[in-house]
Prior knowledge:
Blueprint: H1 3-37, H2 39-44, H3 65-83, H4 87-104, H5 114-118, H6 123-130, H7 146-150, H8 167-174
Helix pairs in contact: 1-3
GO biological process, one term: lipid biosynthetic process
Organism: Fusarium oxysporum f. sp. cubense (strain race 4)
Subcellular location: Membrane
Amino acid sequence: MTLAKTIYYFLIPAVQYFIGAAIIDTWQYFLHRLMHVNKWLYVHFHSRHHRLYVPYAYGALYNHPVEGFLLDTLGAAVAFKVTRMTLRQGILFFSMSTIKTVDDHCGYAFPWDPLQIVTSNNAEYHDIHHQHWGIKTNFAQPFFTFWDTLLDTKYRGSKTNKPGQKKAKVEEKAQ
């Protein structure tokens, strides 16, 4: 295989996928965080997704249609357009984004999971966000966690429920 073919078929798509993942992570981090900071957005759109205290794979995209369009569809479309992916690349990118989102909500964080070898976000990481004691942390999805690290929203406490802490009180603070 010539150098030109290697660049065209492997290097350029790899760069496009990486940039696309960074774009979709940026898009989703800030909109997801906004839906937690803004009480109206949380109550009317995002709270549906947080009815799942124990996330499971089929619940990954259990959200309000407006939230689904803004976070998932529009975010992926922006990443697709900005990186100028081909239609085939876009199909693969959209599919991998959806699969990764489902994987993050599946409840399992196997060390050999191929989706978690490259990315720093996994089911254990995102599960913390779905707990009433971690709802203001771990906003990053679906690929990397760099925004949580940079903006200090990464959960650093115990990974178990705090004894004696009332669910309603924590949820009240979250809104």
